[in-house]
Amino acid sequence: MFVDERKYNIIVIEDNFGDFFLLEEYVSEKIKNPTIKHLERFSELNDFKDEVGQYDIIFLDLSLPDKSGSELVESVLKIAKNIPVVVLTGYSDFSFALKAIALGASDYLLKDELNSVTLYKSIVYNIERFKNIIKIKESEQLYNDLFELSPQPIFVIDAATLQILDVNQACEKLYEFKKEELLNQSITTIFKDEETIFDNHQTIITQTHQKKNKEKIISEVKYNKIIHNNKEAIIIVSNDITKSIEHLNEIESQNTKLKDIAWIQSHIVRAPLTNILGLIQLINETESVKDKELLLHLNQSVQELDNSINEIVNKTHAM
Amino acid sequence: MKKHIFIIDDDPISTIILKKNLELIAVFKGIETFNNGKDAFNFLEKEYQKEDKYIIFLDLNMPEMNGWEFLDKVKHVISSHNTTIYVLTSSINKADMEKTTQFSLIEKYISKPIDKKILIEIKEKYKL
Q1: By residue range, what is the domain housing residue B29?
Q2: Could you give the angle at which helices B12-24 and A292-318 cross, rounded to 10 degrees?
Q3: Which residue ranges form the domains of chain A, and what is each CATH number?
Q4: ipTM score here?
Q5: A-chain residues near B61 (CB < 8 A)
Q6: I need a surface site. Which of A201, B17, B84, B88 has the fewest CB within 10 A?
Q7: Which helix (H) or strand (E) holds B99?
Q8: Can you give the residue ranges of the Response regulatory domain (chain B) (predicted)?
Q9: Which residues in chain A (264-293) have CB-CB distances under 8 A to chain B?
Q10: Residue B82 to chain A, least CA–CA distance (Å)
Q11: pTM reported for the whole predicted model
Q12: How far is A245 from chain B (nearest CA, A)?
């Protein structure tokens, strides 16, 4: 007869000693030297919970003196976390066994039909299957984290109705809405451009978005079509570029001011200066230092130059 | 053939300096002065003669109609065959200098104050 020599650590929570001994015996028929921890009450499991992680599987009787039914199953599943829980039940409780599965239990065994073969099969099957379930859960968690914890705000919207189906934390933070406030709302609550087109041709669009406090921001939006809960949906990544646009505008306005200054220097400051130069040339050429008219113009031009310099200095202070 | 010398400048001192310099090289005849582009344009629109010769000293920064606006309008009225324009400005701004290349009417960009040598060249070229 085949005996499994691998190491198995099993927790059995069962207040009926007769049932426990029977189960222990069936286990021993197929498994060499199993480690079986016998607990009689839920409270005992609760006290033992720090060590539960070292075990491979839990067998749980559905009615214990200190807890039973759904409450018991849920409490045990919480403690079991990453190991499978198999419920033990009699014929009379059969319907409840199904409910336990729905709650998250891995399997059920009818005590009246228990034998070493079905018990062994249940142990091996549930331990192996649960490993895969854990892997799927981990990968699901990873993908959920990629969405939920992405530093970039992401929306998922219905492709037909434009209703918001999901948003991540960065989205809540940027737009200052709570997730519940956005779900099932139209994306136009936030996207304020009249034409909010999502076709296949344009994959980056610059848009005006509105936060909860009505503040407008400029966002660069990228999107892709996906299937979400069997529906055609659009995943939208939003990149707030308000600050860079403001920065750009500021640089442009400073450039304009610099060009203005160059123009003022050329046309306003240099005009009287060129007159002064021209007049001095004339005075030299004609040797008419006593020409009253030229000297008068010279004086006037010097005054003008002084005035325009004062004017510019005042303008610069006002900037 | 009559020869006209136009000085288009809102700055009276600048106009006087140019006129005195022309006097120094003995050019007296045919000088007309305008305070802005608009006055000069209105004059040309009415009085322009195909058979006459026009030499125009054009300032850029003027009220009413500045030098650029004058150039834009006047190019539909006059021909470069008998008209030569010298931009005479206090501006040493690169943007202004580059812009002059857009106008075929412009012979030269001259930064004030004008050098008498340039005037002598002009006098000889057009036999003023």
Answers
A1: 3-126
A2: 140
A3: 9-146 (3.40.50.2300), 154-240 (3.30.450.20), 244-318 (1.10.287.130)
A4: 0.86
A5: 267-268, 271
A6: A201
A7: helix B94-100
A8: 4-127
A9: 265-268, 270-271, 273-275, 277-279, 281-282, 285-286
A10: 29
A11: 0.54
A12: 27
